[in-house]
Amino acid sequence: MGDDGNVDERYQPEKIDVAKDAGVTFTFLDGHVAHFDLMRMRLGCPCATCRNLRERGEDSWPRPGSPTPLRIESAALHGAWGLTITWNDGHDTGIFPFESLRRWDEDRGG
């Protein structure tokens, strides 16, 4: 939210395109487009389990028995501020906040 209580357009997607075999593309209200491939999204999952694995130096994907190739089974809005993804390995606890995704893309020079 902006200082005036209004939603900051920089962090609000106008359009979200989910390509289950390729990745997710966000088009924000201010026109900024951010694309995240499947591997980047799965390895960057913000849930506590995945963060703990990364902190221990382990990969969050693939895990033993993970199906390949990686695929999105479904994606849904989480309120007005994020996206949840269910992956083909059954993982579905990560909520990707739009503001974090935008900053993540900008940090890589997107």
Describe the structure concisely.
This protein has helices at residues 38-43, 48-55, 98-107; strands at residues 13-19, 23-28, 33-37, 72-78, 82-87, 95-97.
Task: Give a written overview of the molecule.
The chain is an alpha+beta fold and 110 residues long. It has 3 helices and 6 strands; from the N terminus they run βββααβββα. The strands form 2 sheets. The chain has a 3-stranded antiparallel beta sheet. Strands 4-5-6 form a 3-stranded antiparallel beta sheet. A hairpin with a 3-residue loop joins β1 (13-19) and β2. The mean pLDDT is 91.
Itemize the secondary structure elements and their pairings.
Elements (H helix, E strand, L loop, with lengths): L12 E7 L3 E6 L4 E5 H6 L4 H8 L16 E7 L3 E6 L7 E3 H10 L3
Antiparallel strand pairs: 1-2, 2-3, 4-5, 5-6
Relevant terms:
110 residues, alpha+beta, NE0471 N-terminal domain-like, three-stranded antiparallel β-sheet
**Shape verdict:** globular
Within the CATH hierarchy, at the fold level, what is the topology? NE0471 N-terminal domain-like
Overall pLDDT metric: 91
What string, H for helix and E for strand, traces the elements in order?
EEEHHEEEH
Q: Classify the secondary structure makeup into a structural class.
A: alpha+beta
User: What quaternary form is this?
Assistant: single chain
Per CATH, the architecture is 2-Layer Sandwich
Strand content: 25-35%
Query: Care to count the β-strands?
Result: 6
What is the CATH top level name? Answer: Alpha Beta
- Biggest sheet strand order reads 1-2-3
Count of DSSP-assigned helices: 3
Unreliable stretches = none
Largest sheet: 3 strands, antiparallel
Q: How large is the radius of gyration?
A: 14 Å
What percentage of residues falls in helices of 4 or more residues? Answer: 10-25%
Number of domains: 1
